[in-house]
Amino acid sequence: MPRTHQTNLEPIQPEEAKELYLSQRADEVSESTIQAHHYRLSHFVQWCDEVAEIDNMNILSGRDLQHYKMWRRDDGDLNNVTMVTQLSTLRVFINWCENIDGVASGTHDKILMPSLAKNEDRRTAMLSNDAASRLIEFLREYKRASREHALVEVLWHTGMRIGAAHSLDVEDYDADGQYVELHHRPDTETRLKNREEGERHVSLSAEICDILDSYIKYKREDAADMFGRNPLFSTPHGRPAKSTLRDNIYQTTRPCEYTGECPHNREIATCEAMDRNKASKCPSSVSPHAIRRGSITHHLSEDVPEKVVSDRMNVSLDVLEKHYDRRGNREKAEQRRDYLENI
User: Fold this and answer.
1) Mean pLDDT of 136-141
2) CA nearest to 147, candidates 215, 238, 207, 237
3) What is d(CA 289, CA 295) in angstroms, rounded to the nearest whole number?
4) How far apart are CA 243 and CA 157, in angstroms?
5) Where does the pLDDT of residue 304 fall: very low under 50, low under 70, confident under 90, or very high at 90 and above?
6) This prediction's pTM
């Protein structure tokens, strides 16, 4: 028997609803967020088409959403943390559909989230201070002032996101003032995660400035992007894609690159992670975000006040504590002791 729906709803297909939703959100969130939502919602559209045979969002029910949740977990072999991420995006989408009379009011509240154990949603991958020191020492000696070297130094020293580094122009760097300026420039395709609220000056040490000066003078590709801007981290064709810079980090942080040894007892010459496009397959290579997490933890371990770290890295104190601070309880206690003994 065909399912009925509320008469006040307007028919809309799942794919059309997804495209309208992404189009509306494009002016509100970063490009990376749009891409993430596109990926997550594509699974829902696929389920509607191939499994549930739902061609009109009006008939979507709480029971349908429970069936989708079970299908998505099994189809993707997803853990609780990933399921929460996927379902959170779906809830936002379904709520939006309610607001355009595509789904019955209150349907999004019927999406039941998996329960997470305490701290289960905290990602832990990060570049440790010891690994960062060895990596930077290697780059300074053997690949000094290369783009990879300059990029790693900036990411570790400032804790900025890869999107922020990607957005930098040569003109944003002030060698005399020893800082870089971060600007949200969506019209020329470089966005900051927190948009205008992410705009700021970030101070640099004299050592980092010396490295950037050498990179710009001797190694930087002198090429403008399609908008006539001069990207700080450039290629012969202008501004590289963020994925290119991300791949550079995966390649550079493979331990065999800077130690000459594989901690996983693999044959380096035949390891699949030696392929330029598969560097992330190395269990010990890290993403730019892992460098950010390690940098933030390092700053906190060096007694830099949390408010200073929050402002410098453009992250709220709550998120800083939950997702970035990797100091152990013992280390925090010893740091508090040092403060109290000086009172």
Assistant:
1) 96
2) 215
3) 10
4) 21
5) confident
6) 0.66
Q: In angstroms, how far is the first alpha carbon of the chain from the final one? A: 76
3-state secondary structure string across the chain? CCCCCCCCCCCCCHHHHHHHHHHHHCCCCCHHHHHHHHHHHHHHHHHHHHHHCCCCHHHCCHHHHHHHHHHHHHHHCCCHHHHHHHHHHHHHHHHHHHHCCCCCCCHHHHCCCCCCCCCCCCCCCCCCHHHHHHHHHHHHHHCCCCHHHHHHHHHHHHCCCHHHHHHCEHHHEECCCCEEEECCEHHHCECCCCHHHHCEEEECCHHHHHHHHHHHHHHCCCCCCCCCCCECCCECCECCCHHHHHHHHHHHCCHHHHHCCCCCCCCHHHCHHHCHHHHHHCCCCCCHHHHHHHHHHHHHHCCCCHHHHHHHHCCCHHHHHHHHCCCCHHHHHHHHHHHHHCC
Quote the CA–CA distance of 89 and 91 in Å, as a whole number.
5
Give the CATH class of 14-110. mainly alpha
Examine domains 14-110 and 129-293 and report if their fold is the same: no
Predicted pLDDT of residue 169: 98
The 10s digit of each residue's pLDDT in 165-211 is 999 999 999 999 999 999 999 999 999 988 899 999 999 999 999 99
Q: How many residues does the chain have?
A: 343
Are 263 and 284 contacting, i.e. CB atoms less than 8 angstroms apart?
yes
CATH annotation of 129-293 = 1.10.443.10
**pLDDT greater than 50 at residue 315:** yes
